[in-house]
Amino acid sequence: MSTIDNSAATAAVALERPKKGMSIERAQGRIGVLFATPYTLFLIAFGILPALYAIYLAFTKKGAFVGFDNFLKVFKDYRFWPAVEHVGIFIVVWLVLLVVLVVTLAILVHSIGLRWFSGTMRFVYYIPGALAGASSVMLWLFVLDPTVSPVSWLLQALGIESFVGAVDASRLPIVLAVIAFWTGAGGWIVIMYGALNNISKDVIEAARVDGAGPVRIAWSIQIPLMRKWIAYMVIMSFAGGTQLFVEPRVLAQASRGVVGQDYSLNQLAFLYAFKQNDFNGSAAISLVLLAVAVTLSIYFVFKGGLFERA
Amino acid sequence: MNLLRTTVALSAILVAGAALAQDGAITVWADATRQPAVEAFIAAHPEVPVNLVLDDGSSGASGTFQTKISLADQANEGWPDVVFSTQNNDAAWAARENNGAQAFAQVLNEGFLDQAFLDGFTPGALDPVTVDGKVYGLRNDLAPVLFWYNKTLLDSFGYAAPTTWEDYQALGDKLAADHPGYFLGAIGDAFPGPYVYYWSGEAPIFQVEGESFKSDTSAPNSAKVSALIDHMVANKTLTLDSLFGANFVATADKLVAIPGAAWYAGALFQNPGGVNAKAGDWVAAPPLKWADGAAVTGNVGGGVWYASSHTQNPEAVKTFLKFVTSDTKVAGTGGLPAYQAAADAWLDAQAASGFYAGDFKAAIQAAASSVWNGWGYPNFSPETAWAKIVTPGLAAGKTMTDLAADWQQEMKNEAQVVGYTVE
């Protein structure tokens, strides 16, 4: 999974809006430009220009315009639809896990009265996020192999007798989702915690006076007010999830090919480019991913009211 | 994002390689098993600076070699000077132009290396890397499949060593009945299935003629091999472990016999992390055959050294290639050297050490000269399809007979994707 830059979001939640005044706003504007410029330059160099190049590649072959030929070729590839299915199931499992557990855990941690305990928990949740994707897979390779796993009793209870069984096609989306959750959830819990801090104490207090219990408060007040942040999490995680690459790639090597080198769409794009020397087909796959991610992001942006002024 | 990161990391390696190439050094890509050979070269030839980049040697058909060269082709820089690959089929792409970039592999005959040196290789050794009379690589070792058995164990059980596949299966029945737990092989890796069993069993499942690919898992010999595997998996004399996995090593003292490549000598038997055999226990015997079949066998890799057509230091590359394939102490890297003189020296040394009982030299020579030529070297490997379809299928309790059709279909699909016409 791509590591998502959570720090900006956290900062945005944590900062309270200062009182408005012309000069401050202008100074802030100038600082804002300063902060955004390097990012924009990198975005152009490593995001927008390559994307434009991919569009050019996807509709051409040897420099000549070929319409949708590359797309048709990819759609007819026997590996394409299984890869779509793999990534699709993974994303559904992962997003459901993420939304349900992250929100629940964030509300639980937020309701802990003891300051040190709440802080410790947030820190503990965040630790796995410090590991890069590939290294966390390395760790999971040991966890998933019943011959060396510290939780081999649990694997055996689930009917998993060997590493090959653990990465069996039917279990793999869940395994990948658990790995992704373990690596990525901590950062989101911290962000959701910040979102919960943003909810005015008066509102909660009023609800409590009216006799609402913690569950009612969570369901009727906290979650609706966190809607934007949940939508934000879903969009970022969806975009990251469609790009599933490192985890199955490392698993492919570790399982000696039982997890196919063509498991995910990004892996297939990689094979197209570097095994078949078909950069045009590879670009077509990446454009399909881009189109799907943009469409669903737009849906969630409007559904989640992400750009509405509070 | 991740693809980008991977690409950046790979590019960094390539750039580092390119930078070093300028000061007369050669960049060598090889796997950890080849590292001692490269270090021996550095010690013997201090005048040639070597920059060794370790990778997986493309084992299990991981495609590392081709992937990294494609990146270099795209970047138009960063090629290594010498590459080692555990696969025998890389010439299928490395001998061709690639999106306008010249073919990566240097033609080694026709003047690059002197013909007298090339003639020193065992006859047939360079066939997998020869395309239209041009030699594109040098074999590191020959890897014919022979039959290894533990004489001490067999004698103590009172069984004779099998010489045919039928006897091998019958031995499995006896062991399963009288000595459960003792076993005759493991097929958890992707290579023993296709190369040790199907290739040795003369099964026409991986054949190339020109640009067309053929696979027939229902041919008589293919069906016989599938039935053999199913029978022995069912009575547990063939395990589903990897030869290099913890389970296999833990039970290795119960391994009675195993058909396998010449390089099992160093990689499996004389490896403290493998079988860790006692001197005098194991015998290398001529390969198994069908009772009514020809005396032929399979081949498991054997590795190839390639020179880059982009190299700036051809003289250093020549020195390196000659050393690493023909030096009597280094060549073969633990297996049977492909270079005849080095092979003779290695066989004599093995015989003199007395580690293996029986006529080691005769068995290996018999195997090396009888590799079945009905097996192709296209631009893909049967291992990826095996790992994807058969390994998880067997682990889930299906039989080889059930899986054969799917395996064949996956190989045909792969063939089509890389441009072969499929019959």
UniProtKB/TrEMBL annotation, chain A:
Q: Does the keyword Transport apply?
A: yes
Cellular localisation: Cell membrane
Report keywords, A-Z. Answer: Cell membrane, Membrane, Transmembrane, Transmembrane helix, Transport
Q: Which domain of life is it from?
A: Bacteria
TM helices/strands, residue ranges: 31-59, 87-111, 123-143, 174-196, 229-246, 283-302
Q: Which residues form the ABC transmembrane type-1 domain?
A: 84-300
For this record, the Gene Ontology CC terms, alphabetical, are: plasma membrane
Provide the protein name. Answer: ABC transporter permease
This chain's source organism reads: Devosia insulae DS-56
The lineage is: Bacteria, Pseudomonadati, Pseudomonadota, Alphaproteobacteria, Hyphomicrobiales
Automatic annotation (TrEMBL), chain B:
**Superkingdom of origin organism:** Bacteria
Entry keyword Isomerase: no
Q: Extract the InterPro entries matched here.
A: Bact_solute-bd_prot1
Q: Which Gene3D superfamilies match?
A: Periplasmic binding protein-like II
Q: Which SUPFAM superfamilies match?
A: Periplasmic binding protein-like II
Zinc-finger among keywords: no
Q: Which UniProt keywords apply?
A: Signal
Q: Where is the signal peptide?
A: 1-21
Q: What is this protein called?
A: Sugar ABC transporter substrate-binding protein
Which organism is the protein's source? Devosia insulae DS-56
